[in-house]
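ok so heres the complex, four chains, lmk if somethin looks off
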Amino acid sequence: MRDPTNPVCRTISTLLSRIGDKWTVLVVQTLGQGSHRFNELRREIPSVSQRMLTLTLRNLERDGLVSRTVTPSIPPRVDYELTELGKSLQKPICGLVTWAMDNVGSIHAAQARFDAAQDKAVAA
Amino acid sequence: MRDPTNPVCRTISTLLSRIGDKWTVLVVQTLGQGSHRFNELRREIPSVSQRMLTLTLRNLERDGLVSRTVTPSIPPRVDYELTELGKSLQKPICGLVTWAMDNVGSIHAAQARFDAAQDKAVAA
DNA sequence: CAGAATCCTTAACGATACTG
DNA sequence: CAGTATCGTTAAGGATTCTG
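and the predicted structre for the whole thing:
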């Protein structure tokens, strides 16, 4: 089940690393509010670079989580939207984010304890 | 809420990248079966290097998700175990893994469609 | 047994400049 | 507007060697 040559495991692992990358979750959550154009996404997520937004959207599109609709006008218009599959991913992501928000306090406290113990050990 | 200078957001983002790293989820799931010694973990996760296992466990310990118990014998014995906080994280992780397993098929199909369309575009 | 330290390669990412 | 292409930096991770 955790054999890395197993294709199912590889897919799960790839998905987890997507979730863990810097932008995927932000993009999915933004698209959760509805369809967005490329530069609308950039404005909603100011810290993302053009390059990273492009790559993130390409990956999401390739995995079937986001649809890309091109309107060949001048200037061109491209709309991104969550697919049904993409929408279904929101729930487990939300579970994780909620857990994190509920437990920020405990985590920070644990980190403070750990770092204090480290300092003490180094000082000694 | 998605301001990267907000400490809560930073914690959430750090947690997500932990989930997304190569080993954290595997280690948490292995420890979910019960307490393990260092080399027991290595045997259960053969692909992890000693260095990465050490780093992963340190991070988990610092975040308060895993406890580390040293028995100063010769040879030394170190046991790792999920804390209550760590156990509570299993549920949202499971939600994500379950989603992934349920949708591997759809994802692979989407990737195949995407790649086929790419090839066609390149060939043209 | 459980690690710390070091070296090295690769991949991620940001910044910038250019294009249909 | 919505990208692509290229470059340079940083960080992740593996392999190896050494130690209490």
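quick notes: Chain B touches chain A through 49 residues (CB under 8 Å). thats all i got rn
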